[in-house]
Amino acid sequence: MVHHEGDSDRMNIAIDGPAGAGKSTVARKVAEQLGYVYIDTGSMYRAVTLSAQRAGVSVEQTVKLAELVRSLDIALEPGEQGQSVFVNGDDVTALIRSREVTLQVSHIAANETVREVLGLMQRKLAERKGVVMDGRDIGTHVLPQAELKIFLTASVKERALRRYREIVDTQSITLSQLESEIAERDRLDEQRDISPLICADDAIVLDSTAMTIDEVIQAIVKLSRTKMAEAK
Ligand code: DC
Predict the structure, then answer these.
(1) How much is the pTM?
(2) Nearest CA to ligand 1 atom 2
(3) Domains, in order of start, for the chain
(4) Could you report the per-residue pLDDT of 102-140, keeping only the tens digit for each?
(5) Which of 81, 162, 171, 215 is the Cys-Cys partner for 211 at CB 3.0 to 4.6 Å?
(6) Which residue has a Cα nearest atom 6 of ligand 1?
(7) Residue 34 C-alpha to ligand 1 middle, in angstroms?
(8) SS (H, E, C) the chain
């Protein structure tokens, strides 16, 4: 294996938690401050969901779904507004945020082969360290050896309110509708058999309900510096 200088000075940071806790914004900014690479694993599950919808493959067609996920080349690239996502060269960044994808993604993410294939890709992306990865099972399954694990959460009400503010101008949906959709997504993510959303034993829990995004970012950057100093 090629030795990359500086590998030993870097760590991997796993940020898990429920939908709408602020993981992606926080993870992206933490990566920016540390000079690390940000990887949004939710976008990969979304990319598979969109591809399945385009190919007319349903969650029940497990063999076809397995075939499909193995045929996808998913690439993540840093963009202006977070991360750009490409599937077989096609830019799907905006499309994977549609309501159709959002409503189906938890079902696709419960498929064993989908999780296996994406988990492998994610581990590979983190091999050289210096990665901030957000998702649901990063600290528990994908990167159990991550040097710093954060479980970022917030009340359902607060998470629905944040999402509402983000999309109120472009989508017609009520706050209570969002609240119940988020609660349902939590339920599906927490109760699936494979890699459910749970807090790793060695994760640090941050409840962001009464914190600003900036406070959360600073808390994580500080924790990473402490960990780094400890490791020396
Ligand atoms: O973070 P997000 O809303 O973009 O995630 C989309 C879906 O993907 C979410 O419902 C759960 C699933 N997911 C997962 O199961 N495991 C991950 N590591 C990341 C996301």
Answers:
(1) 0.90
(2) 42
(3) 12-231 (3.40.50.300)
(4) 999 999 999 999 999 999 999 999 999 999 999 999 999
(5) 215
(6) 42
(7) 24
(8) CCCCCCHHHCCEEEEECCCCCCHHHHHHHHHHHHCCEEEEHHHHHHHHHHHHHHHCCCCCCHHHHHHHHHHCCEEEEEECCEEEEEECCEECCCHHHCHHHHHHHHHHCCCHHHHHHHHHHHHHHCCCCCEEEEECCHHHHHCCCCCEEEEEECCHHHHHHHHHHHHCCCCCCCHHHHHHHHHHHHHHHHHCCCCCCCCCCCCEEEECCCCCHHHHHHHHHHHHHHHHHHHC
Best probe residue, ligand 1, of 25, 41, 116 (max atoms within 8 Å of C-beta): 41
pLDDT tens digits along 163-177? 899 888 888 889 999
Question: What pLDDT, on the 0 to 100 scale, is given for residue 8?
Answer: 62
Q: Which amino acid is at 80?
A: E
Which atom of ligand 1 is nearest to 16's Cα? 18
